[in-house]
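Question (not urgent): is this output format expected?
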Amino acid sequence: MVKTTSRKIGQTIQRDNDVNKLKQKKVFDDLAVVVENINAEVSVSLPAANSMINLLWYDLDKVSKASQ
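Got this back:
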């Protein structure tokens, strides 16, 4: 479930990254790196991956509010 969720988040970030302005590209690149780290962490520690996902949602919320 965690891996599926992180993949979906990664796909959403990639889709949004494709349509975003260049100045926001760095933000989305950073978020994509976080998703890659989550995918790697799933194999090691589910609680740690879950914590990383929670932080990612927080960061996505900040990005969303900043773009409004």
